[in-house]
Amino acid sequence: MNRGRLPRALMAAVVILSATTVATWLPGRADPASAAATTVNRVVLDDGFSGERGDDPDPGVWVFDGGRRDLARLDGDGRLLLTAALRTARTIEAGYGHAEARIRGIRAEGAWRALGVLDADGRVPYGRIDVLGSDRVGWDDFHTYAIDWTPTTLTWSLDGRKVLRLTPAEKGRPLAFVLNLSSGGFGTNLMLVDSVKISVRMSAPDWKTYTTYRAGQLVAYRNVIYRVREPHTALPGWQPNLVPALFAKV
Q1: pTM of the predicted model, to two decimals?
Q2: Cβ(229)–Cβ(204) below 8 Å
Q3: What is the dihedral of CA 214, 220, 226, 232, to 10 degrees?
Q4: CA count, 13 A, side-chain hemisphere, 78
Q5: Which has the higher per-residue pLDDT, 5 or 229?
Q6: How many Å from the N-terminal Cα to the C-terminal Cα in the chain?
Q7: Contacts of 23 (CB under 8 A, 6+ apart)
Q8: Cβ contact 239:207 at 8 Å
Q9: Is the N or C terminus of the chain more exposed, i.e. has fewer CB atoms within 10 Å?
């Protein structure tokens, strides 16, 4: 088998089987709608800010609005010294996930600002806000700020205590994450960030033989989730880890 491609005869079989089975399920064979599903957590960002003293944060991970990069520097000991808002370079489309950051800074209140969210247009999402607890902190130590999100809510916590819930007016929009001290009452103009980690929860039906798959569909095999590259009907021996022409790891 050529790397990344199926032999011509095998691809022809894929096309023929797909054409004949896309609308009709064979008796006793799996319908992907009823297949068992696998749910996995996937880390999409994990930054411990390693690097030399004075280095910029990774430009493939973080960006400043307006392009200025002189407002954040690594301290050489695995921390980021930040004097302005810094956001993730990409937005995340997954409907469920968890983001957390270990931050040291003085703030009277406002966990949603220390680790915040923006929509794909760079705006703060609007909606109903429910205060769940106090989020006052001092400069004494690092604190863990976290956000758990679903398609309908975002819930902030501080050191494991829920402090705020946002019910966005627009549900299920992609999110970017922002480290922010430029507003909201920090008593100093400096934030120290020890680490940031973001993971998403993904669910997909388990791969089955004699099942017709469409391009772009997610499928799980051995606790790994793949995206279907080409429409086809699965045959024995065509497991996602064995046929890279048809499946790509997500």
Answers
A1: 0.74
A2: no
A3: -30
A4: 6
A5: 229
A6: 23
A7: none
A8: yes
A9: N
